[in-house]
Design a protein that fits this description.
The chain folds into two domains: about 1-120, Serine Threonine Protein Phosphatase 5, Tetratricopeptide repeat; about 120-210. The chain has twelve helices and no strands. The protein has helices spanning about 10-20, 20-35, 40-50, 60-70, 75-85, 95-105, 110-115, 120-135, 140-150, 155-165, 170-180, 185-210.
Amino acid sequence: MFGLGASKLDRGLDAFEKGEWKRARRTLEDALMDDENANGFYHLGVLYWRGLGGDRDKRAAADCFARAADVGHAGAQTAYGIALRSGAGVEKDIEAARANFRAAAGAGDCEAMVQIATMCEPDEHRRWLLRASELGYAPAMRHLSDALMRYDPIEALSWLYAAVALSADEAARKRAGALAREMSAAEIDAAQKAGRQYAKDIQQRARERR
């Protein structure tokens, strides 16, 4: 909550956090005319990309993401990479997308790690997914489970259980249930124990980073 003396940018970001999309969009557009700000451009880009508070405009979104990405905003680098990879709002450029994902992943953005993983060979693919999973990112855990399914189903199930324990991720819960139906009680028990330990370790590391 920002008071009357708050800047336009702060008021726009506050409206974004509250889900007041029209006010957020209008205020951020106004704020960024006076003061370019990477975080502001990123959030305005999200509004344009999703069509929140007004018409969807992928081109304007990509431009906002590019501006923020140029000064190292990790979330914007990931978002711009997605636009570049798909050619949505900007000319398709796979190598530029890869460079943005790697920069964002290097800064710790978990979605960027998932994105770059899908562009890598199997060994590097798993390493990126494991890194994001160890940071507690449930989508990465689901992707890692998929990568492990063929040759280590117990480990695959373990990461699904970890995702459920940490975030109550419904997609992970459904996948875990489907996989567990194909496994023995002993295998399920082993996966549950490993999943609980993974979740515990992730929570401990998160506390240590604070």
